[in-house]
Amino acid sequence: MEIWINPACSKCRSAVGLLDAEGADYTVRRYLEDVPSSEEIRAVLGRLALEPWDITRTQEAAAKELGLKEWPRDAGSRERWVTALSEHPELIQRPIITADDGSAVVGRSEEAVRDALGRR
Length: 120
Fold this sequence. Notes:
Helix content is 39%, strand content 12%. By secondary structure, it is of the alpha+beta class. It has a four-stranded mixed beta sheet with strand order 2-1-3-4, with helices on both faces.
């Protein structure tokens, strides 16, 4: 398993704490420092079965500067969103946990983290 975190995020710290408490074998990726490429973001989106706008933090300053709320949410705009996430990783919803079975979850709740644990 791998978990994409921002150490300053309370949801990320909670998810890591739960993984530790359950004895999970995982690696941590501080995605603000080790920025995912567009290809990695597309791969995670496939694992999540979500679109890029589904994992975008639209209240962040960068989102407001880019005017993301006004961007179309359609197949033709998908790459524009992916590029924005790779260029502004602070816009990526967190934490994202990729499970060994090829799936992934956005681990913002204890239930979602436990779901990922069940997939290892």
